[in-house]
Amino acid sequence: MKEKESIRTLKGVGEKTEKLFQKVGISTVGQLLRYYPRDYDIYREPVTVESLNDQETGAVLATLTSSLDMKKVRNLTVISGTIADATGRCRVTWFNQPYLRNQLRRGMTFVFRGKISKKGNLSVMEQPEVCTPAAYEEKLNSMQPKYALTAGLSNNMVTKMVRAALEQLDLSQDYLPEEIRLEYELAEYNFAAVQIHFPSGQEQYLEARKRLAFDEFLLFIMGLKQLKEQNAADKNHYRMKEVWKTEEVMENLPYQLTGAQKNVWYEIEQDLRGEKLMTRLVQGDVGSGKTIVAFLAMIMTAENGYQSAIMVPTEVLARQHYEALTKLLEENELLEQYRPVLLTGSNTAKEKRQIYEAIASGATRMIVGTHALIQEKVTYESLGLVITDEQHRFGVRQREEFSSKGHKPNILVMSATPIPRTLGIILYGDLDISIIDELPAQRLPIKNCVVDTNYRNKAYRFIEKQVQEGHQVYVICPMVEESEGMDGENVIDYAERLRHELSSSVTVGILHGKMKPKEKNEIMEAFSENRIQVLVSTTVVEVGVNVPNATVMMVENAERFGLAQLHQLRGRVGRGQWQSYCIFIHGKNQAEKSKRLQILNKSNDGFYIAQEDLKLRGPGDLFGVRQSGDLNFEIADIFRDASILKKASDAAGYILSLDGTLELPQHRLLKEKLEEYAGRQIEDPGL
């Protein structure tokens, strides 16, 4: 069996099951293999009844102190009883397991393991697993995978299919040269593929994860290095001259550009005038003023008689950029001359035909849009500059797609992801890097607080007050919907809770990555127009829209996110003239982890926070919400795995210096893997 085969080839996968797997992005056996667990259920040493924590899974060695009661509640058969040890008592409850009354008798001692809920002074354990002490001893410290799920797809179903795939795939040949594997002390691939899903223990899990993270980084960096070699030889067919118009536009702005903005603009101007094609990344915090610098580059391009295109991840953001660009051109009497157009998937067939015509004839000099800009039907007259906003939402190959539209254009990439420079040089290996590290003077600093769940009711009243004053609110949850065996707030249930907590005049909306693009656009549009006052969302809003009216960002289970990502989310507020606030709520019994959140209180500097995040996230920080948008990595995390990233970069450099085209026999399988990886990046740009 090959990785590219359909999951229908696995026994037990029919049409209905296939559709469920497709909902979570799995169509092939390879995608199933790379659908890594988001957490593990670890069988730890039993604790005392007294030390059981609310909302956590715990195990106790206890004696059944009562006979089991059985009663019918609607369609459920409920079995309940009491267990105790020397420190206290605990209620146990099972649903639809009547046979337990014959198996469990008063006075018998077992290890009971399940999720705890505290009801007053009483601990209640629901659906506990029951083991003899000897049987539990065998399971001790084992790790059972927990996958991200969707309605109808159970954890058991995913587990069963992954086991079937691992049994049927031939993983005996390792594509990584043995020399590299030994040099960097990496596990064999067949070991890693099994142990990442079904670890024998924590040590084996770490070994597997290290190997798979290394592979992801290696393939990504090798692709970049090959691309950079191609780019280095590329002549700038759209070499430009300095123009006065950009100076005039800067003079007419209602504010002064910061020193950092001016420096970056100078670097871009020099690039566009050079013999070599520009491939530059502009990094800067949300709100640092990257967009105006991009607009200046578009004006310089138009003045030189060429076209420019700016590509963004969402339709709503594309529309906002288009409106901002149109306003700037209008104020400088350039609108009729450049005739900007907006191209997205929502355009009607007739509108698209007219826009394609305007682009092909050169009637428009500026094009704003989503990935619709790289569709086959778009033909550019003279595309001299391409700007992609939020680099991590577009694969490297998508940027290359533009080169098929004529000569290769100059490339400008904008990103608000604050990556430390040492890592940025590796991750953006095909780009020169500029940093805007100053915020505009008129911005009010955001007020932050880090609190536990006891603060929630107070937060809800504060949110209500902000909405009454005409403002809007983001609430971030780590999950889309309730997931089997996963703790943490989810968007669906949380939105329902807020609808009950807040007055009926407040409209609560939901947004998450499983929604169709059209639905997402409609929700973001409604929020940007204040038809939705409170938006409950996953981290998908990181690259959302500019809503200056939003003044509150509340993040639930904040301890499960990376600091750099929380800073990204915080950047969604504080974009208007009003004071803005960020409330980080950490889960119960997470006080220790909340200490790292205090770093966000100390600084609003994204690069400082990213650097601190890098120091704090080590191999011991095993689980949590994966940094979203990290260049489509499926298991690797640039912060937690910074040392692996550097080693993979060294290995990529060594392999390519030895064999630039991967023609040597020991690199044959690696070459195939690299081609397959590049193909995946084209198919899934992460849009």
UniProtKB/TrEMBL annotation:
Residues 271-436 form the Helicase ATP-binding domain. GO terms for molecular function: 3'-5' DNA helicase activity; ATP binding; DNA binding; hydrolase activity. Keywords: ATP-binding, DNA damage, DNA recombination, DNA repair, DNA-binding, Helicase, Hydrolase, Isomerase, Nucleotide-binding. GO terms for biological process: DNA recombination; DNA repair. Belongs to the helicase family. RecG subfamily. Plays a critical role in recombination and DNA repair. Helps process Holliday junction intermediates to mature products by catalyzing branch migration. Has replication fork regression activity, unwinds stalled or blocked replication forks to make a HJ that can be resolved. Has a DNA unwinding activity characteristic of a DNA helicase with 3'-5' polarity. This is ATP-dependent DNA helicase RecG. It comes from Oliverpabstia intestinalis.
